[in-house]
Design brief:
By secondary structure, this protein is mainly β. It has one domain. It contains no helices and 7 strands. Strands 2-1-6 form a 3-stranded mixed sheet, with no helix packed on it. Strands 3-7 form a two-stranded parallel ribbon. A hairpin with a 6-residue loop joins strand 1 and strand 2.
Length: 91
Amino acid sequence: MTQARKDNNKVNTMLGTLNSDGVTPTLIKADPSTHVLVITDNTTGTDQSSVKSAKRDDNYVPALLVASEADGITPVQLYVNSSGQLLIDSN
C-alpha cells in the first residue's frame, strides 16, 4: 500500500484513491520544476465504492474526499490513476 510522504515538519503529502479499485490510497504527484499537479483528462470510469469514511494508508493518513458536484454535500473520493495522476473531467 502507498504511504503518505512527510516533510521535515512531519506534514503529510496528499493522497487520493486509486481509481481501478476505489480503495487503495495513492500518492498525488506534482511536476518538480513547475510545482503543478500531474493530471490526466480521463472522463471514463465508474464509482468503485460507497464513501462512509476516507480511505487511510497503513499510518492512518486519510486520502482526500471532496464534495460532490451533484449536491455540494455528499463526500466523494478523489480518484488518482496508478501513475499518480489526478483524474479530471474538463468537458
